[in-house]
Amino acid sequence: MSFPRYPEYKDSGVEWLGEVPAHWDVVKLGLIGVFKGGAGFPEEHQGQTTFDIPFFKVGDIGQADVDGALRNANHTISQDTARLLRARVLPVWTIVFAKVGAALLLQRYRWLGQPSCIDNNMMGLIVNRNCVPQFLLHLLPLLDLSMLANPGAVPSINEEQISNHRVVLPPLPEQVAISNFLDRETAKIDELVAEQQRLIELLKEKREAVISLAVTKGLNPNAPMKPSGVEWLGEVPAHWAVLPLKRLIADDTSISYGIVQPGEPLATGVPFVQTTNMSSGTFDLDSLQRTSAEIASAYPRSALTGGEVILGIRASIGAAHVVPMELAGANLSRGVARIVPGCRVTSQYLVAYFGTAAVAWYWELSKQGSTFNEVSIATVRELAVCVPPDDEQVATVGYIDIKLKQFDALAVEAQRAIELLQERRTALISAAVTGQIDVRAIADRAAA
C-alpha cells in the first residue's frame, strides 16, 4: 500500500531527520518534557511487594506488558521510603528507559502504568501537554543514543545531553492521528509476525515427531508391534531388537567423557569440543578452545577419529552429532561423551535416536547434580536403544533427512518473512513519525 506525502516540506536542519512537513516544529526534547533520573535502591529496601508505590529496576524494562506499560513491579516502597531514598514518584505515562550500560544501547522505551519510582540506571521523561506520549514512544526509538552517550567502557547519558537533542513535533491532532494509525498498522504486522513464529514452532514440533516416530516405531505403519520392555519407550516393531547402548559400541572402546581440567585457553594446541559447541552444532576448528598436547594425551579414550558420535552429558544434555572428519585428533571436554558405534548400529541412526522425545524423557528422569545438570556415563551406557535391521536404519536416516530438509526450508521461509515484516514495521514507523507519509486522511477514515 502506498501513502501520500505532505504538500510542502522544509529542511529540518537535523541530519537524521532531513526534510519534514513545512508546518511541523523541530524542537529540543527538553521542550517536550522534563527528564528525571532515578534513585539508588539499596538492597535492604528491595523485595517488598505490599507497599503502595511500585519501584522498577532497569531489568524490569524487559518485562513490560504487550502495550509497553510497566504495571507489575517486583518491588514496592512506602511514601516514607521514597522520601528517605529521595526517589521521585513519576506520574502515569512517564516514558522510561535505560541510561547506562548495555541496556542503554538496546533503546527500549516503556511507560509507567501507575505512579512509580525508578532506579538510578534509568531515566524518565514526563511529557508536557503539547505532546502525546504514544507519539513519542514511536519516535524515540529512532534516536541513536550511542551517538549521545559518554564515551568509555560503560556508555551513559545524562539529562542535559538528551534534553538538547532535536526532534520533530507535529501539531497535537496529527500526533494523535499518527499514533492511532501506527498502533493499528503495527498491530496487524505483529499478528502476521506471530503467525510466522507459530509456524516455526509447529515445524519444530513436526520435526521432533517425525524423528521420534521413525526411529521408535519404524516407517511401516502396518508392522506387527511388541512391548519393548521399557516403560518410556512403549511398543516397537516386533522384528527390532532393544539393547542397552553399551552392547552397541565397537569392540575395545568405551563410552567416555573428555578432559576434566583443560587449563587456560591456548592459541595453539589440541582443540576440544565443549558443551557450547554441542548446543550450537558449530565445530569450526578456529572456533574451538585448545589445550596442551600433554593434557590431551591423558584422555586417549575421548580422542576423536571422525565418524563416531559425540553426546552432550552436561548442560547441553542429549545434543548429539556425528563427528566431522576434520575433527580427527581433537578431544572433548568433561561435558561431552564419545561413542563409537559397533556393527549393529550406524552413527547417523544413533544421532537420530538421541533426538527423540522418548530419549529426552530418559535423560530427564536420570539427571543429577545441583550445580550442573548432567547425566552419568553409567546412565548413558544403560540407555535402551531400538535397533532395526541395517537396511531399515539406512532407509530411516534417509527418510528423516528428506523430511527435515523440507521442514528447514519452510522454517527459513518463515524466518525471512518475519525479517521482512519487521523491516516493514520499522520503515512504516519511521516514515509516519518523521512526516515522510501523510496518514491524516487514513486516520480520519478509520475513526469515522
Automatic annotation (TrEMBL):
Residues 23-195 form the Type I restriction modification DNA specificity domain. GO terms for molecular function: DNA binding; endonuclease activity. Residues 182-209 form a coiled coil. InterPro entries: Restrct_endonuc_typeI_TRD (IPR000055), Restrct_endonuc_typeI_TRD_sf (IPR044946), Type-I_RS_S_subunit (IPR052021). CDD domains: RMtype1_S_EcoJA65PI-TRD1-CR1_like (cd17256). It holds the Pfam family Methylase_S. Keywords: Coiled coil, DNA-binding, Endonuclease, Hydrolase, Nuclease, Restriction system. Belongs to the type-I restriction system S methylase family. This is Restriction endonuclease subunit S.
